[in-house]
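Morning F.,

Quick status update on the modeling queue. The single chain you submitted on Monday has been processed. Sequence for confirmation:
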Amino acid sequence: MLASNKYIVDSYGGFYRHGGGAFSGKDPSKVDRSGAYFCRYVARQLVLNGYARRAEVQVSYAIGRAQPVSFYVETFGTGDQDAAARFVSQFDFRPASIIAQLGLLAPIYRQATNYGHFGKPELPWETDVLFSPPAVAPDLTTLDAAYRKTTFQVDVDGGLIYIRPSVANPLLDCLLAERDVESWAYITAHNPGSQPLTAIENETRHAELIRRLDDQGYTYLPGRGIGDTGLWPPEESLLVLDISETEAAEIGALFGQNAILVGRKGDAPRLVYRSTSPDELAISGSEGEI
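Structure tokens below.
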């Protein structure tokens, strides 16, 4: 056992300050792993965007709080410290957002099993793509209008079922009766927070959604959400059967969705919006300084 040396051999050697613990063996909700990856990403962005030639980003978290309790930026005299701090303040350090931004639910960790977790260009926190400040999220009224102008298709034997919010659907009720289930939810992993991702990123997220549902033993049918205007690409989605509204909302929040569509046999489909924006995944048993 290497004790606190595990971080050292997996990251920067003795070149920078370290905490204890290890990256491997923890899921991305543990910020001593995902937070360190994101700090690496942000520090690289400081250099790539010309704020410094050398940078260190330090973040502190507390159990049960999604937002960091503090962050500190050090440029070692190679750049404007205040400008660098203002730049870093634009990044979203909440755990759920880190997972969404870096795609940490994807099966990428085999590449980090030897020779460290940093300095490998194929890993998402090592990207050379320049950071752009996030677009302003659409307001609830705009979101609701967009969802209600979307057809949520489901692939079934012999054809398709078309679901619209607030519109009763006898064909869907027949499907539920045939499967002997009462409840359902329509969930996608595409484009978290209504911010467009690349096709490859969305495919990776969709595969991770399928893996997670399989692990939890859910039955689902494939589908896609298609907007009436045609301005937004179709989003691969899943009709998940026999799932509670609470469980569905948790999965939707994990994948950064603003809303999910839910229903019960005999009732019209309902949109359920994320209750908070998106502080949904607070730290679940890890604390300390990254």
